[in-house]
Amino acid sequence: MRLYFLICFVLLSWCALPAQVTAQPADSIQYPHPVHYLSLTVEAKPVRMAYMDVKPAKPNGQTALLLHGKNFNGYYWKDVISWLSNRGYRVIVPDQIGWGKSSHPNLHYSFHQLATNTIHLLDTLGIKQTFVLAHSMGGMLATRLTLMYPERVIKLVLENPIGLEDYKTFVPYQTIEQQYQKELKATYASYKQYQHSYYPVWKPEYEALVKVQASDLQKPDFKDIAWTNAVTYQMIYEQPVSYEFSRVTVPTLLIIGQADRTIVGKALLSKEQQSRYGQYPALGRQTAREIKSSKLVELPGVGHIPHIQVPDQYFKALGSFLP
């Protein structure tokens, strides 16, 4: 009988080994605050939405929602989180479905769905209204969210948003498969080269954001991430918001780095086209004219990510706009 139990124990232990060996390694990127997860069902698929919920030591009763860009996730907001939290704001920082620590399902991605997911998160947390701070692609999402749910947004901050022009009117079309094959070939060096374009002058401290983005390369589900990257590029091309800024009625702050020349799909353009489009000084002023209740802050010599490159100037602009 002893031998029987011993054999059973050995067999059970042996059977458990494959699960330990094949388990996915822990994410190597540590976010600045604990990460929570919201379970959702999108297109009949179960997914998880990662988010940080940072509660201040001395609450002012207000909440700020931070929306990340295309090549980023909640990690890069860490200094903005601290600034807001120190001033009493509760800060909600989601990784959108398809990014960061959230699920990377094969879906029909849309800004409408991402906005709906985000509002569901706020509902789950009992948050009725919020200030929305958005960067890059997050600006397109924030614009759509504000148009869909204007009663939920107190004030809107758009930091060098993409989508100030309609890329599909001048960027050559690429199929999702073409974009997917490009994403599969990504390397640390290619990510770093692209991130160089965000700043007029590269500094060693910017390397941290390259490491965060490149951490996806080592994940077991990298092919899923690459596919998501491809279809969300398609989302940007096919779902412009640039024709609807005049419909935004909430008070809006535009923070525009004047040295930014970001164009989604820039490598597909001729040199002459690259010099014609992505002109953020002109695009920022045009958008400020269209959003009637807007304030424009222009930052000379600043590239695509003011809150990273010139945090003091970014926070000064926020301080004069947020209560």
TrEMBL record:
Sections of the chain in a coiled coil: none
Gene3D superfamilies associated with the record: alpha/beta hydrolase
One GO MF term attached to the UniProt entry: hydrolase activity
SUPFAM superfamilies: alpha/beta-Hydrolases
Keyword line: Hydrolase, Signal
Segment forming the signal sequence: 1-23
InterPro entries (alphabetical): AB_hydrolase_1, AB_hydrolase_fold, AB_hydrolase_sf, Epox_hydrolase-like
Transmembrane regions listed in the UniProt entry: none
Location of the AB hydrolase-1 domain: 65-190
Keyword match Hydrolase: yes
Record carries keyword Signal: yes
Pfam families: Abhydrolase_1 (PF00561)
Protein name: Alpha/beta fold hydrolase
Organism expressing this protein natively: Spirosoma soli
